[in-house]
Each structure stands twice: as C-alpha cells, then as structure tokens.
Predict the structure of FAD dependent oxidoreductase.
Amino acid sequence: MNSIWRTTTEIESRPALEGDVEAETAVLGGGLAGVLTAYFLQERGVETVLLEANRLGSGQTGNTTAKVTSQHGLLYQKLIRELGEEGAGQYARANQRAVAAFRTLVEEKNIDCQWEERPACLYSTAGGELLQEEAHAAWRLGIDAKFTTDTELPFPVKGAVRFAGQAQFHPLKFLEHIARDLTVYEGTRAIKVEGDTVVTDKGKVKAKHIVFATHFPFVNMPGYYFLRLHQERSYVLALENAQPLDGMYLGVDEGGLSLRTSGELLLLGGGGHRTGENSAGGRYDLLRQAAKTYWPQAREAARWSAQDCMPLDGVPYIGQFSPSAPNWYVATGFQKWGMTSSMTAASILCGLITGREDPDGQVFAPHRFHLASSAKNLWTDGGKTVKSLARSAFAPPQAALDELPPGHGGIVDCDGVKAGVYKDEERKVYAVSVCCPHLGCQLEWNSDEKSWDCPCHGSRFDYTGALLDNPAQENLKGSS
C-alpha cells in the first residue's frame, strides 16, 4: 500500500551516524519540514546536520495528497472570530507566502516535481452559507477567494469557495532535490535530548540549536505536547480512467471527499477518523463505493493512508519548544496541511535561529493558549486518554483466540493475560502487548491496515509489533 509518490521516486540513501559529531544546529526528522528547515539554515551559512530514523521522506511527506494551498478548510472565519483579524491575517499571510516560496524554489532551482498551478476549492452538497462566510473571511485577509456554485465535480453542490493561485506537486521529487547537498544521517534514531546534546542509537550530536521536526514530538517534558495534540488518519485511492479535474477539491460536509488529479490518475481521499478508532474498518471500501458511483469505469491503481497531528485550536505549533529549553524548537500540529505548514515552519524556525524573527510567526507560538478555541478539544482529548488507560487496566479481553478468524486481529486472552493478536490467512498467530510504550494507553486494532493504533496520541505498530508512527520510540513487547 505504497503511495504513488513512493513508487515513482528514488532518493539516494545516506549513511548512518558513526560516533559523536558537533554542529551549530541539529534537525530531527527527515520529512519536508525538517529538510526545508535544514536547507534554509544551510543557505544562511548555519552548519546543520539532519537526523532521520529511517529514510528521507519515509514518514508523512510520502503519504500526503500534496496540495500546496493556503486553503485549510473552514478556517479563516473561525480564526477571525477567535484570534481577531490580526491573528487570522498572520496565518493567512504566512501560508500565502509559503505557496509563493515553493513556486520560487521550483522555478529558480528548476526542480522537476510536477508543479502545477491549480485553484483550490472547498465544496458542500448540503448548504452554501458557511462557504459564503469563508470566502468573505479569506477575501478580507487578502486572499483571492470567491464563492461559486459552478464546479467540474461529477455531482451537484450547494456552493464552493475557490482560492486562486494555489498549486499541486510531487512531494518526494521536490524533497529529493532540496536535500541533495544537506548533511543527512539516515537510520539514526534520536532517543533523547539532554540540553545541547541529541542522544541517538548511533552516537551523540552536540548542537547549539535543536529542531524537533519529527511529526509528533517524542519528548514529553518540557512542552507537554502530548496533552495538546492528537492524531487522525485518512485514506486515499489512486484511480485510473476517472475524469480528470483542473482544480483541487475538499468537501466540508461530514464524509466529504478530497480530490485532485496527478498525471493520468485521480486521487480520491476521505474516510478520516481519530487514530485508534477504526476497529470495524471499511474506510477504503467507502472510497471504492464513491468511485463506483461517480466514475464507474475507473480502476484502483494504488491505495495508501496518512496520519496528521491535530492541535487544540486549529493552528500549528511552530517556534520555541519550551521557555525552559530556549534553544530547542518545534514544528508540529500541521493538521491536513503539511505542505504549506512545512514551508511556514522552515521559514519561522530559520528566522528564530538566525535572529530574523518573522512578525507573522506570533500566531504559531507554541506557548499560546486560547481558551475559547482549545477547551472543547482539550476536554475530548483528555477523556480519550482516561478511557484508554482505564481499558488497559480493567477491560476484559475482547475475544477468545480460537474465535479469531484468519486475516483478523483483536485483543484476546492468552493464558490469562490480555494480548493483541493477529491471525494471518495461514492461521499463524502474532501476539504482542497492547500497552503503548509511549504512555501506557491501550492499543486498538485497525483492520484496514492490520496495525495496532493508540487512540491517545497516535503511535502505531504493525501486526508484528514493529513501530510505524511516533511518539512511541520502541517496538511493542512480544514483537518479533
């Protein structure tokens, strides 16, 4: 289930760290945010090393739908209401500049990454009032946004918001080019950070500045990001023989679809849910049903899924990691908008490190707390954690081992102990602990991806117990 980006890109491998090194800045995480941050720092003459636990682009950058847009759902009317026009304007300007910065890099560096200028559109099949309000809010903030009822979609809509001057591209081809001249150590997992030292499984890196661009920060304290983030998953089908689209689309109704064209393929996304809440599965089937309805001649060429960090108030955390760690920096909470957020983060963090602070970076400051926009999500996230911890401690097993059918997983009673068990089609059994090594929440089975997912903070493991997604840093007990 690799994305089309992964299957069409070869990124040259880099060596692992061997022993201890020093640099002015250490960037942790080889996704787009980390690579762009390292790139801009190097351009300004800052000696920088980048550490990646796996391979460059092996995380969420390779699973995105790769829309380069400042249109981030029904956001701007919310930001104006909760942060005021100045705060909302900072967000809008930063993301509009991010789109322009991508365009400049692609053109100046002649990067072959399928860059295409396309409008980005929100749509609704239920009603147009909120979309009219969103178009007006974005226009007030200087974005070329218009409300319309005319789209190229294969179904009628009540309304749509069209952002002009947006784009789409191939994210890994872009990343591969930008990373070529960087000092990168792959296969080097950061285990902990102590002051100015990053301790990895291959050696230590001493740096004046340390950037956490690891999707979800793996250090719990200081910062306490595990209290201010949760993760969500979404799913994508790549379809052949489907009608191409000139624009990029996102439905704002419950169950709305994401659409964009890539070459001869139509990318159809949706089926989102909080990580750890998909035991019933069927997310890909929902997309297949939509494909059958609207493009009956289409054929599924690929499928994959993505994971997104969701902040409390709808704005990423970009800036100083914590007041008690003034030389640590963080970029997380990008929601569904990792492309422009990565560029925004790289610009803000590079400015902070080199003494050129971005005035529009204030809205992203990680130490903010806006009660009105955060209280509901804080209460929900806290409740999910308490529920999961309680289940881990007290809930009975969900099924007996002999009742588990081949090709399925579940929590069963193994000699009086709860275990996560997957039984493959040949009836071979894989048993692992269902206690997440991050903070002890009970993992849940994801039948669409045959993985064990944490509903608290989004760590994920394959059915053998091997780590897939952080903030956990180790495999499950009992894994092979």
The helical segments are 4-7, 32-43, 76-108, 129-140, 171-178, 283-294, 338-354, 371-394.
